[in-house]
Amino acid sequence: MSADADEQSFLADYDPRAFPPVAVTVDLAVLTVRDGQLCALLIRRGAHPYRGRWALPGGFVGAREDLDAAARRELAEETGLDGHAHLEQLASYGAPDRDPRMRVVSVAYLALAANLPRPVASTDAADARYWPVADLRDGEHPALAFDHDRILADGVERARAKLEYTSLATTFLEEPFTIAELRRVYEAVWGVELHPANFRRKVLSTPGLVVPTGEERATGRGWAELYTRGATTNLHPALLRPRPAA
Amino acid sequence: MSADADEQSFLADYDPRAFPPVAVTVDLAVLTVRDGQLCALLIRRGAHPYRGRWALPGGFVGAREDLDAAARRELAEETGLDGHAHLEQLASYGAPDRDPRMRVVSVAYLALAANLPRPVASTDAADARYWPVADLRDGEHPALAFDHDRILADGVERARAKLEYTSLATTFLEEPFTIAELRRVYEAVWGVELHPANFRRKVLSTPGLVVPTGEERATGRGWAELYTRGATTNLHPALLRPRPAA
DNA sequence: GTAATAGTGTCTATAAGACAGTATCCG
DNA sequence: CGGATACTGTCTTATAGACACTATTAC
Question: Which chain A residues touch B20 with a CB distance below 8 Å?
Fold first, then answer.
């Protein structure tokens, strides 16, 4: 009741046996674009609970490990990522019953990477592959384990939103890339068709977004100029996705 | 090494004594606008560590308590908030040494509320008051306890960004309010001056953002029309803050 | 009167949506 | 040839920034 009741609860925390056991994990929503579709890396669980169900990759946070470091370690373990991928914290999920075994608070991360050849089904899981998120949404495949449907949905929405005002779309591509390839990333992530001419004008009129290499690449028909990522990370004004009618 | 090494680590978690003790807390960045300044609610710590330092309000997450529920409970305890305040998860902070006593992972929340008369210095802390965030930034006052400077800075930036594309600014005001009062919220949060005429046009041209009551209020000089919050929560197009030069 | 504020109207620059049109290549 | 793609250019509309102007009130 006194002014340091707050402190007493902290002191209670100080005794390892005085507070309820909680595990802290990181879960990863790893997104990439494959064959024109936004895909998420999923792991098939080999044991209970949710045995046989697909789940986001993730794992325990080490005793003296930073949250970001744990996410980076898991990303490397699950994808064998060598190049630079984007990694950012997404949100935390801690419903008391989200894991039937014990109280688990999961700090979810969002990772964006260029098309990865091998899903690395070796290390930690029974199976691993990239699933188109559109298929998962349609209920065509069973729901994910735990609350991972929700986490993945939040991650996809974060990625969709960030394409509007950042240069993150370029992290889905290997350098160098063409303007049309960049446009197809936007189209895959947003699930819409964009006007090629207007998209091109918008991208090239944003200083420092992409840097022309001077090279060209033979595409399906014709030749397309090649670009690398520029220094600009924030888009002003934004490249807004088409709204579902006004 | 086998396909369920992942599972083994989960089973290890299942034994409460087999994983390192971690405490999960919620910390609140409670923002309000007082006297034209964006202010944050801070609590003066009455005990070690960081005794006497100002800190964000927060506390332990109950054994079977959801994260959001813990944040709502703490907000009610610390502010005595009766009316509707906005509350959303901000991010999680889990550097291994952020609390000298033990491993603590804090899930931070951002709360926005209308001007609150009494800081409620009674319940949990030695002292409590609203501090203008501009003063804290200038280093005019000592740094906050733990990593709360960082959390508060992240919360302020989140609030600033969300004013651009949501109707959240209205949660800083009691109804009914004038367009000028709403503008002063934007000016306080962003720390800039806005053009009154253009701001008015923008707000009134966004359908459903504010609803005229038909009443008027005597202001300093003259009469101003009164409005209440509308149903629109997302602003399209956004009300972008002035950028520090192009 | 002056100073400050609420509110209206207008001009201009910018940017986006729509679309015409050329050049190139594949089949 | 038709069809698809890379790329250029133009027209229209919507919006934001800047600013002129009136009305009202406090002092």
Answer: 63
Q: What is the pLDDT of residues A66-98, one digit of tens each?
A: 999 999 999 998 888 766 799 999 999 999 999
Task: Enumerate the residues of chain B whose CB falls inside 8 A of the CB of residue A61.
Answer: 22, 94, 105
Q: How far is CA B107 from CA A123, B27, B47, B67, in A?
A: 30, 6, 22, 8
Q: Is the CB of A218 under 7 A from strand C?
A: yes
> Tell me, what's the pLDDT at A197?
97
- Cis peptide bond prior to A176, omega within 30° of 0: yes
Omega cis (within 30) before B237: yes
Ramachandran quadrant class, A69 (left: phi over 0; alpha: psi -120 to 50; beta: rest): alpha
Chain A to chain B Cβ contacts (< 8 Å): 140
Closest-approach nucleotide to residue A184, Cα vs C1': D5
Domains belonging to chain B, first-starting first, are 5-163 (3.90.79.10), 166-229 (1.10.10.10)
Predicted local distance difference test score (pLDDT) of residue B8: 42
A230 CA, D10 C1': separation in Å?
29
